[in-house]
Write a structure and sequence with these properties.
InterPro entries: Acyl_CoA_acyltransferase, GCN5-like_dom, GNAT_dom. The protein is α+β, with helices and mostly antiparallel strands. It has two domains: 86 residues, Aminopeptidase (3-Layer(aba) Sandwich); 130 residues, Gcn5-related N-acetyltransferase (GNAT) (Aminopeptidase). It has five helices and eleven strands. The strands form two sheets. The chain has an eight-stranded mixed sheet. Strands 1-2-3 form a three-stranded antiparallel sheet. The longest helix is centred in the last third of the chain and has 15 residues.
Length: 227
């Protein structure tokens, strides 16, 4: 029996995060464009792949995260493909007292600016609405953040963990992650995350706070030509 995280995007969009879905659950779904560019097809049939391609606007992009390789949808070009490790924290480290703040719609422009600079993963104007986000400000400037993204039965993803290059090395990422993880555990769920498989420094950090590698999955970045 397949694990729900073998196809995390499809699991999220057909389950707990249906409210954010665009498309047709019979063939292909994506997060609404203002929320994220993650997408998935129901299967590898030509009908589903064509429907997936249609979810990308002219000149737009989609990203899939799959346990197995999928055919390229017609009309889309692969711009990047990378192996990710999927990690679970069944015994997460306890949070530490740490001065942080809850982030909201009012912080959205700064959150997008920080994510665009540091590239923790796909992040657009309203990605922060997928869950709770927290951050650190220094002299009024948002310099680090972490939050929640995809959801599966009993599981919530820790995501958008990033720190401005000028403020790295201060332990912000790990401390923020512990707080996000504690929030997830308090809801009776298990935290999970994705990391590029070659980002050994990040993986080592995640292991110190309780994450363990579950499996590898494939992230594929697609681009559609302009009309």
């Amino acid at each position: 029996m397949n694990h729900p995280l073998d196809r995390p995007v499809w699991t999220a969009l057909t389950g707990r995060q249906q409210a954010f879905a665009a498309g047709d659950a019979a063939t292909a779904l994506r997060f609404s464009p203002e929320i994220n560019i993650l997408a998935a097809s129901a299967d590898a049939s030509s009908e589903s792949l064509a429907a997936l391609a249609a979810l990308a606007p002219p000149g737009g992009a989609l990203v899939t995260v799959e346990g197995e390789s999928m055919p390229v949808p017609p009309g889309l070009t692969v711009t990047k493909q990378a192996m990710l490790v999927q990690m679970l924290a069944e015994h997460p480290a306890a949070p530490e007292p740490f001065d942080h703040l809850a982030l909201s719609d009012a912080d959205a422009p700064e959150m997008l600016e920080l994510a665009t600079l540091t590239r923790p993963g796909p992040f657009v104007s309203h990605t922060h609405r997928l869950g709770s986000f927290i951050g650190v400000r220094v002299d009024g400037r948002l310099v680090a953040m972490a939050g929640e993204r995809m959801r599966a039965p009993g599981l919530t993803e820790v995501s958008a963990v990033c720190t401005h290059p000028d403020f790295r090395g201060r332990g912000y990422a790990g401390r923020l992650m512990r707080i996000v993880m504690a929030h997830i555990v308090a809801a009776g769920e298990t935290p999970f995350l994705h990391s590029y498989a070659d980002n050994h420094g990040a993986i080592a950090l995640y292991e110190t706070i309780g994450f363990r590698i579950r499996r590898e999955v494939i992230a594929t970045f697609f681009q559609r030509g302009k009309a």
